[in-house]
Amino acid sequence: MAKGEGRTTGVVLAFMAHPDDAEMLCAGTLIRLADAGWTVHVATATAGDCGSMALAPRRISTIRRAEARKSAALCGATYHCLGEKDGFVFHDKPTMRKAMDLFRKTAPSVVFAHAPSDYMIDHEVASVLARSASFLYPAPNVSAIKRRPGSAVPHLYYCDPIAGIDPSGKPVRPTTVVDISDVIERKATMLACHESQREWLRRHHGMDEYIERMKRHGSARGELIGKPYAEGFVQHRGHAYPGSNLLGTVLGAADV
After folding, report:
1. Which of 40, 121, 198, 236 pairs as cysteine with 210 (C-beta 3.0–4.6 A)?
2. Residue 119: pLDDT above 80?
């Protein structure tokens, strides 16, 4: 049995590009893992400095960091931010160092990342950062930060791309689907913490599209397993990564 194969509790890290990405894509699963006794971390590459049509970068970043902390706290999670800028997330040495140090400090046994192919480059680069750091962080020589006991290459799951489609518009089918029916309202409450983004969409669309879009996609994923709501993931099973579906072991997630 490879390291991590038989794990039933541990540390999960959702490594995303922007505040509200985790809430949109994997918060239901984070809630279920937290309820099962897991330690939960939510990290973003940026603080969302371009997430306003009216506020200056520093002001909206301060607001969005506070929203992210408030949301994370609802499932007992700790929030982290690398402090990169919207639209300028790169897989370079300084950013990789920040990501590696975060992984070293949190020592995740499960990682959620953006889909490798998504609608915007920040998401795709954050996915590469998560993949790179997840593979290397257990290596003793990769960081001056002390290696935590139990550090090992984690289970890595890619969240659905936004709207469940790749940049060419083709549907992406998940390999693993987690039932979140019982926690959908808690997920909605976490997402609603990002009021700065929700309000922008209210004004732009004239409706609470932010929450409804999340629920529509959750409903579509739920149909794959005959449940009201679900979240979909594609598991990374490359060399050195655990091959078992840990979400199936811990949460009864279905392989599809």
Report:
1. 198
2. yes
